[in-house]
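Work Package 3 (structural annotation) set out to generate three-dimensional models for the target panel prioritized at the project kickoff. During this period the team completed the workflow that converts sequence records into discrete structure tokens, so that structures can be stored uniformly alongside our sequence database. As a representative example, we reproduce one entry of 348 residues exactly as it appears in the project archive.
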Amino acid sequence: MSMNISKQSDKVYIIIHGYFGFGNVGDEAILSVIIDEFKKLFKNVEFVVLSSNPHRTMRVHSVKAIRERLTSLDFWRHFLRSHILVFAGGGRYGYATWRRIALLALLAKLLGKSVIFKGVGVYPYEWEGRPVISKKPVAFKGLTGLLTRLAISKAFYISVRDKYSYMVLRLTGVKRSIAIEEDLAFRLKLPDPSECKELAIKYDIHEGRVLGVNLRTLDAETSEKVVNYVVKLVRDFMEKGFDKVVFIPFGFGSFRGRFFDNDLIVAFKLKRRIPNLIIINEELNPKEILCLFNYLDYVVAMRHHAVIFTLLAKKPILALVYDTKTLELLRMLSRDDINITLVLGISK
């Protein structure tokens, strides 16, 4: 992707919009990739990330971060001087989210900025912490459909991460070219085990046969069913010679009440049933998390990006699929070492 930016100075100012600052490893991985790619594209570039927790984002990525507040003078100061607005990857759910995205994109375009949608997931339904598999894509309708259609049509570049998202935009009436590209997290490079050996030793997973587990906290009933199911799985693996089980969170939470952002809730539910479960209970950056996958012999993964990290590390996997996005991802792959269980199909 090449582009010419009209500007008064040599520096390019880029605002990055996404699900950042929530303690979500997958979205932070996407942000890492976006930052690296634009650093290669422009010699002199400055980033401002729109984040729910600017201090967390600045600590992890060493870039400027602010809150997305339209009543904030700081937001407008950075927005008005920016040259590019990037909507970076991740799943974007529901009508309210896409109205906000479309309005911001149209405003940026009106002010002469380049707008880029990069590897986004487009899902019209709301998501509030319960499993949902959409059987077929449907269009955005009404005002949201109109705004989305206008925003996408006027963007400099648009790519989506799966065929479902592509069809949603086509059904919504978007006529322009839309690229389908892999989730941006696939572009992370797997670190050498020696780079993270100290961390692996800290959690005692540097030797032996290690089963990796990642679950997402969902509604109470679903979480209970998933824990019961995984307890049986873990016992089967231990009978087959696995001597260590490690839980690797991909969501560390950020706000009270957003239980589905915090994987540690379900991790400790699982530990009550499996006392020797090792829990990674510190917030690590995406590279550190990915490095730990070097030390796993098999993975039971629920989070979308936990599945992607497993694929990057070329480990066999049982994917516990709770959402359309992960099912779409796995449908595009053809590997003998991928097994799939639908969370909605798990019985009590």
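The first helix runs from residue 25 to 41.
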